[in-house]
Amino acid sequence: MESEPTKESAEAQDSLPLIEPGHTFASITDKISAIVLTSRTPRFWYIGFGLSFILVLVLLYCIAALVAVGVGLFGIMIPVAWGFAIVNFVWWIGIGHAGTLISAILLLLRQKWRQSINRFAEAMTLFAVACAGLFPLIHLGRPWFAYWLFPYPSTMGIQPQFRSPLVWDVFAVSTYFTVSLLFWFLGLIPDLATLRDRARGRVPRFIYGMLAMGWRGSAIHWYRYEMAYLLLAGLATPLVVSVHTVVSFDFAVALVPGWHSTIFPPYFVAGAIYSGFAMVLTIAIPLRKLYGLEDFITLRHLRNMGIVMLATGMVVAYGYLMETFFAWYSGDIFEKYMMLNRMFGPYGWMYWLLILFNILIPQALWIAKVRTHPVVLFLISISVNIGMWLERYVIVVVSLSRDFMPSAWGMYSGTIVDYAVLAGSIGLFVCLLFLFIRVLPMISIFEMRGLVHEEEVKNV
Amino acid sequence: MYGLIAEFDNPEALVGAAHRAFAEGFRKMDAYSPFPVEGLAEALGFHRTRVPLIVLTGGILGCLGGFFLQYWLAVIDYPINVGGRPLNSWPSFIPVTFELTILIAALSAFFGVLALNGLPMPYHPVFNVERFELASRNRFFLLIEAADPRFDSAGTRRFLENIGSHGVYEVEP
Questions:
Q1: pTM (predicted TM-score)
Q2: Is the confidence at residue B41, as pLDDT, over 50?
């Protein structure tokens, strides 16, 4: 078993393994499939699933209340007509981006370290996008008309407004969910075949067999498979950039000071990757400890994810700096006031908390030892998760609360339903994750076999 | 009999064996591995796949379809006069066009690779071989079908036994 090194010099960092030596194709297969098929379900799984399921029930109750009573249960009012619901939407979509980045972009960049984390990162993307997709539906005043956003042959003869980013969002998020699902499922097929072959009971064998579609590992099938996987990665890469760009357009095409800014697309995408990697770390660090996967998700993976977080955090910091600079340089009285209000207005405390969580605390990642220390990395990832939520809140609510005319100003605060839906969505996410790790291999078995083989060939 | 299948315990042995079998003149072969092995498909004589063409076609369909959907809906079917602005506001049609390009291309990639591979195919004769269970774990296999013109029950068996395999098994149809 591997022990966590406590002192690490710069040279030793480079020698961190991608996979602990001593593993064979058989040991990898057995270890990962055992979590699903043969080991007894650990007690923490029942506790975690139970608690998150309770939150899911809370979420369902709140959604029913919202549809029955109305969207006024949220704290929204004119001028702040977009509150927690949209903040949560953007937050969850942003979190989903890291999964696609790890799966698709790191594949195109031939980064081998993606292989042990891409399966559950892609699953995280799917669940995050599912949670995100809830919010545009439940924040509608008349959610039963949500289908009007799609171009269907309407008997009323009306069609969606294709010049609106809100309609672009519909297509972008739907496409993102579908493509992520296809990519994730395609990656699962060979592993489902492994589970089918190793399952003991008749029912699991049948279910995995049907899902694996008769995959037998034929070399010709693998050839086409790899080609399709690569093409999907190539498609998913511009997709992930475009999705959060379209989400940023929800704000950028409006006139509100603090929203109408050309920096929004790259700023949002970088922020999305930042919060996404933070969530991947938040999930990976406990999972590797609880399931004994330190051999596969090594300190090198944690270090690399920490570095990506640091880099994207610096881009986000640059975004904040530029917003402040634009506000002053523009000479526009409304822009200037927007920035002063953000920093020193009634929500000013939130802005400084945001700077603390998003910029100051993650600077610890410059220190090499921090990047390979799981507990500290975990705490930093939580800090970034909170910070990115606060950032979306500052952008959405604070900008709306004070725009052009003082007569139009108004305050906003979240109601109990707002907080319950946020907690419920987190519960839904965690619940889906627990289900995933129970029934599917959370690490890509066939890619790990390929990795072991490559390391063997390299060392020969 | 459907064919004969030989078991190997490392991918290099399988690739070598596949080359030798191809050199012997066998054409109706297949190789099985628990992860993609470089050079294996080529050793079996397989070089080109139509997957990229399918994806490209899907992408083009999505692009044209997406744009013309919006054009038809915004210009012909339900035009909205907003300050006399041009109805064919093509820059604002770009995001949806782009998303639909990616969507249809991705759907083509997924269903295309499944269709070309003949999946779902829950039954295949190789599953009748008990050791084949290990093809999804840590063993590598080479199959020569009985339908191959150069197949000869005893001769092919001897050939397979002599190219580094750890066992040769009969595959029932």
A1: 0.93
A2: yes
